[in-house]
Amino acid sequence: MKIYEDTSPRNPPEWCWHRGWATVHDSAYGLLMKFAFLNALTARELAELFASRERGKRTKLLRTMHFDLRDSENFDLAAMAQAFGTDMNTVEGAFLDRRFTNPLASAAHLKWCEECLAYGMHLPGLQMDLITRCPLHNVLLRKTCLGCEETIPYTFAPAIFDKPFCCPNCQAEMGSHLKVARSKLPALPDGSVIYIERMNRFIETSRRESSVSLHSLVRIR
Q1: pTM reported for the whole predicted model
Q2: Which of 158, 157, 124, 156 is nearest to 141 (CA)?
Q3: What does the DSSP assignment read for 160-172?
Q4: Could you report the per-residue pLDDT of 130-158, keeping only the tens digit for each?
Q5: Which of its termini does the chain have fewer beta carbons within 10 Å around, N or C?
């Protein structure tokens, strides 16, 4: 009896995604967290999909599994745009070095609005040092976990992404509404885009005179 091995190529995986989950105002943290949560991916699996394809850089990123979410050069933006069903402009705008003139004037730890993040939304502008309140809800941004009072690095790392929308220190829930009704993520309220754009303009017009490009000074660490 002969045994024949089936060597037909495997079809690429069909990733789950709700187009409404990409609001075009999400940060890299928000987009990647939602994608990891919806597809039950580990940080390693997420990194294999979206880490930069640049030779040398990719090897280092996958070895260390620890890279800054503010720096777009750590990621394959085209792969992200395809997976999220959106365009390159939206993905580029999720990173501080593409969105703002002075990305160095930002926090290395997560700053977030509890009301936004409960639905899986995080705006890149919230990471900037100048911003202390959410432009949509006018509440003070959190800088530490409500449960353990520890900061959360704004970093791609297993401790942060293996359990999406949970504090990596105490596992406190941060995306409660998103996880109750995954397919019913509410749209941005009418007029909210105006407030987001106003925040972004404020960041740009208020930048320090000594501000410089990320790529002309140092790499964000």
Answers
A1: 0.84
A2: 124
A3: HHSSTTB-TTT--
A4: 999 999 999 999 999 999 999 999 999 99
A5: N
